[in-house]
Amino acid sequence: MSKIRLLASGLNVEPIRTAIEANPHLWDLYTMRTASPDSPHHGLSDIWARFAPPGVNGNADHDAVWYPEADCLPLRDLVYPLMSIVRGDRLGGVLITRIPPGGQCKPHVDPGWHAGYYEKFAVQIAADPGQTFCFEGEQLVTAPGDLFWFDNSHLHWVTNPTPHERITLIVCIKTDKG
Question: Which residues pair with 8 in a beta bridge?
Fold first, then answer.
């Protein structure tokens, strides 16, 4: 069974990309995933738009909240229609990741309640040919505006051997599939 699937292409991501460029201060306000040299996400940058409320353990059952940083980006215009398309009934975390030129997200399996409870959908905001989302035995190269699903319970990684950054919007949704 496939661990990654392209679901759609051609989504209009230009408003989000433009807003990200206009708000560079949003990167790396929360570095829980990226700070440790032992993290597979070390060397990457994040914008956390939605996750556990401050002071709540994100690895325990919780209702995610929008962070104030999300107000600077038109994410809801894409996230809520996406929930409808995939028949989602609960919205979890919303995260934007950036892999620098020549960088990579190292091989890993995502742990914790949040990672196991929600399905992962991603919208490519910025990408170049050669940037690859990988699983053992399969990979996906995406373009800006591509929507894809991936199963983070399997070993996965992302490579960026190009001279351009890769920016991905990750949306965690509980669907009616269970």
Answer: 147
Name the CA dihedral angle for 143, 144, 149, 153, rounded to a multiple of 10 degrees.
80
Reported as a single tens digit per residue, the pLDDT across 67-76 is 999 999 999 9
DSSP letters, 75-114, are -HHHHHHHHHHTTEEEEEEEEEEEE-TT-EEEEE---HHH
Pair of tokens at residue 165: 């950054």
pLDDT at residue 178 tops 70: no
Q: Could you give the count of Cα atoms lying within 13 Å of 130 in the half-sphere of its Cβ? A: 10
Cα–Cα dist 147/24, whole Å: 24
- Amino acid identity, residue 141? V
Question: pLDDT class for 170, splitting at 50, 70, 90?
Answer: very high
Q: In sequence order, what DSSP letters do the residues of 51-83 get, joined into one string?
A: ESPTTS-TTSS---EE-GGGGGS--HHHHHHHH
Distance CA 41, CA 43 (A): 6
* Domains of the chain, first to last: 4-175 (2.60.120.330)
Decide: pTM greater than 0.85.
yes
Give the span between the Cα atoms of 22 and 114, in whole angstroms: 30
